[in-house]
Design goal:
2 domains; 306 residues; mainly alpha
Length: 306
């Protein structure tokens, strides 16, 4: 399941289209308009004026979202563009909130300000995603490379195979000592491979902890950090067990090491990430719903005002 970026674009379009929607729906002159209607019309003109004055930066908001959601993938400058877009929407929100509105337009003002506030919040979140995602991907790629390297290193080590011994007692003892020496050497090499892997994973965890995930990635991020931290601990115990003379616990320690590496793929972890993504998509779609509420209030005023 992935973030539905198209919902974010629809929300951005809804914000920039507010002025046009207001003009078309509510500014409908009547020959004998009431003072209330004239007051609401004047307020709407002020809303239009604010947004017209910010036409160029608001257009950049749409361009920032378009670049971020392009099929070819986000541009390198997407995070910077989205950060500027969020500041633009914050500024628009402050200016619209500061406009004096007649009592009849109080609800309309509240809905318009709420719409722009929601879009600004989503834009801030998308900007965080644009900053976090590539860094997160790079760090996880390093973890995958470490996994591949560990697999190759362990695959290149050939522990001696147990077999029946024949010969004199002296020959059997000599063969047993040779087998134990070969097994200890192989176990030491395996421990070295696990320790090298742990050093790589320790660097991955350090880099992960330096990141600041947005809400939509928080669950998956926490699972990755917890899983790799557990892998580190399990790897350390496995390496210690391999270096001991008594390696009877190695099989159990190896199984625990494997299970720790799979924590991020558990059903519970996947469900948590899916829930976070659905919540994000719902927040993005709510922007379009907020735009609909603005339209509905404009229509109500159009019909209700004498």
């Amino acid at each position: 399941m992935t973030i539905d970026r198209r919902t974010v674009v629809l929300g951005a379009a809804a914000v920039v289209a507010v002025a046009a929607a207001v003009s078309v729906t509510a500014v409908n002159h009547r020959s004998q308009a009431s003072p209330e209607r004239r007051a609401v019309t004047a307020y709407i003109h002020k809303v239009n004026s604010v947004q017209n004055q910010m036409h160029t930066p608001l257009t950049r908001v749409l361009l920032a979202f378009r670049d971020f959601t392009a099929k070819r993938g986000p541009k390198k400058t997407s995070a910077t563009e989205l950060r500027a877009a969020a500041r633009t929407l914050d500024r628009l929100n402050r200016r619209l909130a500061a406009l004096p509105a007649p009592p009849e337009a109080a609800k309309l003002q509240r809905l318009i300000v709420q719409l722009v506030r929601q879009q600004a919040a989503i834009t801030h979140e998308v900007e965080q995603i644009a900053v976090f995602s590539p860094k997160f991907a790079v760090v996880l790629a390093r973890a995958r490379a470490a996994n591949t390297a560990l697999g190759k290193a362990l695959g290149a080590i050939a522990p001696p195979k147990a077999h029946k011994l024949r010969g004199t007692r002296k020959q059997v003892l000599a063969a047993q000592r040779a087998y134990q020496a070969e097994a200890a050497t192989a176990a030491g090499e395996q421990a070295g491979a696990v320790e090298a892997y742990d050093r790589e994973i320790a660097g991955v965890v350090q880099r992960l902890r330096a990141l600041r995930p947005p809400r939509v990635f928080a669950a998956g991020y926490r699972v990755q950090v917890a899983s790799l931290t557990d892998v580190l601990a399990a790897g350390g115990r496995l390496a210690d067990g391999l270096r001991k003379g008594d390696r009877s616990q190695v099989q159990t320690l190896g199984r625990r090491f494997t299970l720790a590496s799979r924590e991020a793929q558990t059903l519970a972890a996947q469900r948590a990430q899916i829930a976070a993504i659905r919540a994000y998509n719902a927040r993005a779609k709510n922007v379009s719903a907020a735009a609909g509420r603005v339209q509905a209030e404009l229509l109500r005023l159009q019909k209700a005002l004498p």
